[in-house]
Amino acid sequence: MTDKYANEIKKTGFVLESKINDILQADGWSVISNKYYEDDFEGNVREIDILAYKVSKIQQVDVYTTLLISCKKSEQDIWALLARPIDLKKPNADWWPLHVWSNDKSLTYHLEKPKIKKTYHEEIQALGVTEVLETPNYEVFAFQEMSRVNGTPRNDTNIFKAVTSLIKAQAYELGVLSGRKKTPSVYQFNLLSIIDSELYRLLINGDEISQQEIDSEHYISKYIIKRQETVSRIRFASASSFTNILKDYSRLHVANKKWFDTKITSFYEEILTDYSRTMILFPEFRAEIGWTLSSEMWKLNGQQLDRDSIGINWNKSGKYAEVYFENIDRYVSILSENEQLKKKVSDALLKIYRYKGEFRFAEDDIPF
Q1: Which of 84, 139, 247, 352 has the most crowded CB, counting CB atoms within 10 A?
Q2: Residue 54 included in any domain
Q3: Do 216 and 276 belong together in one domain?
Q4: Is residue 368 part of a domain?
Q5: For residue 262, what are the CA distances in angstroms to 104, 204, 308?
């Protein structure tokens, strides 16, 4: 009896998935195979071959470096990527896509800055990441499966499916994280399309077309997600090159830890001197001290404190923090002598703002 079933299954991508899974786990990645996601465009459920991640705790935040991987095998065909010389000054082009989600306010403050995508790419590369986020050398604008025997173009169906499944899976994961993650976290996503076949670049330059077998190529894709254009980086790679390529994604995780750690630290650095950063965390600070201040004022005057009147200010001349609220004026000296209350406020300043310096109760003389 021949092993016909075992031999035939080798022609599918399942064996490749298993090999990629083993390589990832050997390098310390956690792996989820055949993860399902909802395709809200077509109203059905799809799956992504592999979701892999590394996670590390940095200060208060769990940092996830995430890989979404599509695995394909072609017995008859090679994959050809049609490319042209790249124009990095091309209007409206985005050569530095970045897909990051975080529920930590110190990080979202940085991630919402207008030029953060290019800044992230440049600073991560400066931390030793070589190929993962490099600016593409060529602009890939189309792809084809082509006969290994005679070069006949087939179509782009399998390649297009790999690309769209990655982009849709990424959009799904980004969309559900806000409901899933409650602890402070940040996720950085990377998309890879692995092909167990030869990978070629067909470079079109005027009337000349040159072909070159390659190990990997960066493809910047524009796609419509929920009626909005999204730009994503897909890394095409041959299966034989994956072990070597993965080393740089591991370096990316190390760099991500350093980068996000630096951004968290810079957010809290002299935060109370910056009104915009102070206000980002102010709801948490007010919630932390609101009940205590309200209780103390009730003891002093029998009136309920409007917690919305609580404020915080930075005294530039004295270089200390000021806490104030409505009708505090005649009670400042009494509150300032209440050591238990002062400790409660000091603890809140340390917990929310990481501020260890002096603070004082102040009159509510802020004009606006």
Answers
A1: 352
A2: yes
A3: no
A4: no
A5: 14, 42, 33
Mean predicted confidence (pLDDT) in 232-236: 96
- Rounded CA separation 192/198 (Å): 16
Tell me the C-alpha distance between 340 and 346, whole Å. Answer: 10
- Indicate the pairing of strand 320-324 with strand 311-315: antiparallel
The residues near 317 (Cβ < 8 Å, ≥ 6 apart) are: none
Q: What is the mean pLDDT of residues 269-288?
A: 97
The boundaries of the domain holding residue 305 are: 271-361
CA distance 42 to 321: 54
Give the bridge partners for 313, in sequence order: 322
DSSP per residue over 116-162, as a string? HHHHHHHHHHHTT--STTPPPSEEEEEEEEEETTT--B--SHHHHHH
**Together in a domain, 227 and 290:** no
Cα–Cα distance for residue pair 201/219, rounded to 1 Å: 11
Residue ending a domain, choose from 230, 250, 268: 268
